[in-house]
Structure formats: structure tokens, C-alpha cells
Design a protein that fits this description.
Length: 213
């Protein structure tokens, strides 16, 4: 059984098959997570420790993710590991994606990659990797994205529509993996018609909530 934790207002999970057994997975846009900012890592870890695996958006430095993993280790008494993408974005403003996980429950397997967006559709290209749940020795793929907010819903919709092609790319890139999850900050309500194409091939697990869901 997979339990989905919605932190703040940032999470949408799409899964193509049955959920993982007893593995808690969450996603959180931590809004410019940096060790130079005024983030309360103690408070963040108090929430994040409720999951075994967390996808992070708006990560500004790998050092910040390391600080979060360190605080999670301190609070839980269990070792946590992490990995981050390179900085993505078209302008001088760039963000990173990150994954952090509890070592006794999750292990990184392979395939960490930033999407090669040949058509330059995404402002911030999605990031993905394959992991192993140590509770039942099953494998799963997690992909995360922060959709452009832009000036209007039309700006967001173009990236949401493009997620259908990205979903196909995920299935081709990780063949034989029937547990693929796409999560992040979509800046688009789940009722938007922009989701129609992706909904035809992936099962949405968050169906209502704030406009950032």
C-alpha cells in the first residue's frame, strides 16, 4: 500500500499500476530551499520524516538537500540519502530537483536523468530515477517536475499537455517497470482539460484540491 502525502499544496501523483507495499512517498515544493535562506530545516524534517521517500522541487543547492537529509537522520535515528539534478531553467533563474530517502526502506537503483527536451517545451525539464523498495524488493520509477506558472493558464497548459509525451518517454526509458510515478508542482487544477491526454495513459491519484495541485 502506497500512502501519498500532500505537503503544502504541491502534489499530484500519477501511477500506472498497483501501489507499492508499505512504502510512503511524498512530494514537496520547498520554495527556494537553500542553506542561505531562512528555512527551518528542523520544522521541515518534522513533516518530511513521515514519508520514506520525498521528491523536492525548487531546490536551490545540493548543500540544502544534504542539510535536510542530515536533519532527517538526526530526528529519526535512521540514515537518509539524497540526490539532486543539475540546475534547470531557461533564464538566469534556475532550480534543481531533489530526492531524499530513508536507507532502511529505499535504495537508489539506477537511471537518474534529466529529460532531454529536444523541443524545449519545458521551462524546467523533469528529473527521474529508478529506486527499489526494500520492504518488498519491488522497483519503482519516480519523476518530478515543476510546471511553469507563467502569465496565464495557457502558459501552464502547454507544459501539462507535453507531459503525455514525457510519460511515453518514461515508459520507453525504464522498460519493464510497471510502477511509474509522476509528481511535483503542476500549478494546474486536476479538473483542467489540459490533463486529458495524459489521463488517457496514466491514472491520476489526486482529483481535487487547490489550484497548485
Amino acid at each position: 500500500m502506497l500512502k501519498l502525502f500532500r505537503h503544502i499544496a504541491v502534489c499530484l501523483l500519477l501511477c500506472c499500476t498497483n501501489a507499492l507495499a508499505a512504502t510512503n512517498i511524498g512530494t514537496w515544493n520547498l520554495e527556494h530551499l537553500s542553506i542561505r535562506d531562512t528555512k527551518d530545516f528542523v520544522a521541515i524534517a518534522k513533516v518530511a520524516k513521515k514519508v520514506d521517500f520525498l521528491a523536492v522541487q525548487e531546490l536551490m543547492s545540493e548543500e540544502a538537500l544534504a542539510a535536510l537529509a542530515k536533519e532527517l537522520t538526526r530526528q529519526t535515528g535512521k540514515q537518509w540519502s539524497f540526490m539532486a539534478s543539475h540546475a534547470v531553467g531557461r533564464s538566469t533563474y534556475k532550480e534543481m530537483y531533489g530526492f531524499v530517502w530513508k536507507d532502511e526502506a529505499i535504495a537508489y537503483e539506477d537511471g537518474a536523468v534529466t529529460y532531454l527536451d529536444r523541443k524545449d517545451t519545458f521551462e524546467r525539464e523533469p528529473y527521474s530515477a529508478r529506486f527499489k523498495s526494500l520492504t518488498d524488493n519491488s522497483y519503482f520509477v519516480v519523476a518530478t517536475v515543476h510546471i511553469l506558472y507563467g502569465k496565464s493558464q495557457a502558459d501552464r497548459a502547454s507544459e501539462i499537455v507535453a507531459l503525455s509525451n514525457y510519460w511515453s518517454w518514461l515508459k520507453e526509458t525504464y522498460p519493464g517497470n510497471n510502477q511509474i510515478m509522476l509528481m511535483g508542482d503542476f500549478n494546474t487544477p486536476p479538473t483542467s482539460p489540459a490533463w486529458d491526454s495524459l489521463d488517457s495513459s496514466a491514472r491520476p491519484l489526486v482529483l481535487n484540491g487547490a489550484t497548485t495541485l
